[in-house]
Amino acid sequence: MGVLDSKIPSGPLAEKWTKHKNDINLVNPANKRNIDVIVVGTGLAGGSAAATLAELGYNVKTFCYQDSPRRAHSIAAQGGINAAKNYQGDGDSPYRLFYDTIKGGDYRSREANVYRLAEESANIIDQCVAQGVPFAREYGGLLDNRSFGGVLVSRTFYAKGQTGQQLLLGAYAAMNRQINRGKIKSYTRHEMMDLVLVDGKARGIIARNLVTGEIERHSAHAVVLATGGYGNVFFLSTNAMGSNVMAAWRAHRRGAFFANPCFTQIHPTCIPVSGEHQSKLTLMSESLRNDGRIWVPKKKEDAIAIREGRLKPTQLAEEDRDYYLERRYPAFGNLVPRDVASRAAKERCDAGFGVNKTGEAVYLDFAAAIQRYGKEKALTSGIKNPDAATITKLGEEVVEAKYGNLFQMYEKIVDENPYKTPMMIYPAVHYTMGGLWVDYNLQTTIPGCYAAGEANFSDHGANRLGASALMQGLADGYFVLPYTIGDYLSNDIRTGAIPTDLPEFEATEKAVRERLEKLKAGSGQNSVDYYHKKLGKIMWNKCGMARNEQGLKEAIEEISALRKDFWENVRIPGEINAKNAELEKAGRVADFLELGELFAKDALERNESCGGHFREEYQTEEGEALRDDENFKYVAAWEYKGEPKDAQLHKEDLVYENIELKTRSYK
User: Fold this and answer.
1) Domain limits for position 482
2) Alpha-carbon distance 118 to 13, whole Å?
C-alpha cells in the first residue's frame, strides 16, 4: 500500500524546516472552520496538537481512555525536558543537541527530523513558561538546567521531579480553553477500536464508550494518533498499566507501516522487581544520575553478604566499592546513555555482584553528593568549621530541594530512607523508539493519518536520550504537526463534512463488533492477565536486554502458539455492550500478541547491535554494541499482511550528510 517517500526537503540541513514551511500549502482561517480533525490520545503530543489545531480554527475531537486528559502517561515523566538554549554557557547549540541525539540513537535516526527537533526545542520552553509551567530557577532568576545521560552539557529544564505533570497541566489548560470555546469536543473514557478509510484516506474512527459499552462512529478529514508507546508488551514496564498499542496497531492493520518495533529502551534506574505478583514497575528519574553514584561491591563475598543481610552497604569501605560506570566510561561516568548504563548493570549482576535478594540490583548512592552540597551550603551560609552532622543536614536539605519527591516516592515503595542508605535500582522496559512510520510531515503511509510523539518512530533511532521524550511530544504537537497537516487539509476545503453513514463506516463497525464477539467466544479457561504475563516473560527473556538468533526464533514460535491459545481459551466475563474492564484488556493483549511476534521478527532480521537492540552475536571484545552500517543503515518499516510472520519489510535508507558515522564511545 504505501511508498516510503520520507518527503525530506532539499537544501542545507539548517534551512530545511524553514524552507518547508514556506513551500507547503496553507488553509485560510475561514476554511479551517469547515475542517474536522480527530486526535486520539491527549498526553503531551496529543494535548498540545489538539490545543494548537483548535487555536488555529480547526474543529477538533479528542479521545482518551482515561477519565481526564490529566491522567495521560506523560504525567509520569520526572526528570526534565531538553532544549538548546545554552543558559549555562557551556557550549550548547541546536547543532550539538542534534549531534547528541543522532549519536545517542546510535546513528539510526533521520537527520532532517532530528535537526528540526533541535531547532524547535528552544520555542517549547518559551511556550511552556508563557503557560505558567513552574520550571526550576537559579538564584539570578534564569531557568535552571541539569545534565542527563549521553551529553556533556546541561540542557535539561525541570520542575523538581514532576516535569511531565507540570508540562501536561500546561497543555491541558490550553486544551480547556479550546473546549470552553467549543473548538474541541473532548471524549474521555473512549477507546479507538479501528481506523476508517474512505477512498484510501483516513476519514474517521470507530470508538467504544468504556462506560456504556456503546460502539460509536466519528468522522473527520484527518486523524492524528498520539497514543504513546507499546512497552507494556513486556507486561512489567514503567508504563501506566493502561498504556497499549491498540490505536497504532489497528492503523497498522489498515495499512500504516510499523517501523523498528525491536527498538525498545531499557531504563537503568528503575526500582527492582519485588515479587511474582507485581503488575508494574516504578521509575526513578535519570536526573538522579547527576548526583548519585552507581556501584556494586568489588568482591563477590561482600555482594553475597549484602544479599543475605549480613552486611549493610554503608558498612562497605570506599576502596571495596566498584563505581563501574566511572571506571569503564571516565569521560561520561554515571551519565552514559541509558542503553549503555543498563547493559553495564546487567553485566555486573549476571557476574554475581547484584545487591538485592534476587541479585538483580545495583546501588545509586547520594552520600558523596550530600557531603559536597553540605560543605558548599555551610560556606555560603557563613558557617565556619561545621561538624559532620551539620554538613550532612545541610546537604540533605539541598538534595531534598532538587529531588525530594523522588526520594519520598522511593521510601514509600521500598520502605528504606534513601538519604541514609543507597537506593537500589535495576534496568526495566521504559520507552519504545519504534512506532508507526511517518514522513517528514508526520504522516503515516495512510493519507490523512498522522502519528505524533512516542506513537511514531521518527526522532530517537535505536536509543532515546533522557529528557528527549517530552521535547519530541511537544515539538510535534505545538510546532510541527499544526504546520504540516495544513498541507494535506488544503485539499479538503470543499469536501464538506464526512458523513458517518458511509458503507466504509458500516463495514469497519461490523468488523469491530465481530472481533469483540470472537474475543467473548473463548472457552474461558484462562484470564487475560494469564496470557499477558506469559507474553511478558517470553519478551523479557528472549527479546529483552540481550537477544540472540536462537532465542528470537523460539520467541516467534512461542508467541504464535500463545496467541492461538489466547483466542481459543481466554476468559472474558461480563457483557460487550456494558462497562467491561476485562474486555478492554483483552483487546489490548490481543494486539500485543501480534506486535510481540513482529517485534521478535524485526529483531531477528537486524543482524547487528545498535542502541537498545543488543544482539549477543554482534558485540565488541569489550561487550559494546557492534553496528553494521553497510547492511543495516535503514529504517525497517513493516507492512501488514495478516499474520506477523507474513509481514513485508520495506526499507528507508538513512543518509548522513552532516554527521560522520562513528562507533559510539563514551570513554
Assistant:
1) 13-265+430-492
2) 12
Q: Residue 623 belongs to a domain with what CATH number?
A: 1.20.58.100
Higher pLDDT, 25 or 3: 25
Active site residue: 108, 203, 208, 338, which one? 338
Whether 424 shows a pLDDT value over 90: the answer reads yes
Rounded Cα gap, residues 431 and 267, in angstroms: 8
**Summary mean pLDDT of the chain:** 96
In angstroms, the first-to-last Cα distance of the chain is: 45
Percent of the chain with pLDDT over 90: 96
Q: Calculate the CA dihedral of residues 103, 108, 109, 112 and round it to 10 degrees.
A: 80
Do both 483 and 527 map to the same domain? no
Segment 565-619, tens digit of pLDDT:
999 999 999 999 999 999 999 999 999 999 999 999 999 999 999 999 999 999 9
Q: Quick: pLDDT tens for 122-157.
A: 999 999 999 999 999 998 899 999 999 999 999 999
85 has a pLDDT exceeding 90? yes
> For the domain that residue 239 is a member of, what is the CATH number?
3.50.50.60
What is residue 638's three-state secondary structure? strand
Asked if residue 461 has pLDDT above 50, the reply is yes
- Written as nine digits, the cell of 476 is 510535534
- Residue 292's H or E segment, with its range, is none
Alpha-carbon distance of 221 to 193, in angstroms, equals 18
How many Cα atoms occupy the beta-carbon half-sphere of 165 within 13 Å?
7
| Residue at 643 is within a domain | no
Q: What is the tally of structural domains in the chain?
A: 3
Assess whether 338 carries a catalytic annotation. yes
| DSSP helix/strand/coil, 652 | strand
Conformation bin of residue 474: beta by default, left when phi > 0, alpha when psi is -120 to 50: alpha
Among 437, 434, 486, 478, which residue's Cα sits nearest to residue 460? 434
In a domain, 662, yes or no: no
- Per the structure block, which three cell numbers stand in for 594? 501480534
CA atoms of 80 and 134, how far apart (whole Å): 12
Write the DSSP assignment of 336-361 as a string of letters.
Answer: S-HHHHHHHHHHHIIIII--STTS--
Residues 243, 286, single domain; the answer is no
CA distances from 653 to 66, 132, 160, 261, 612 (A): 38, 42, 40, 17, 20
Indicate whether 651 belongs to any domain: no
Amino acid at 86: N
| 149, 337 Cβ separation under 8 angstroms | yes
Output the pLDDT for position 315: 97
Average of pLDDT values for 466-493?
97
Residues 575 and 620 in one domain: yes
Rounded Cα distance, 592 and 584, in Å: 13
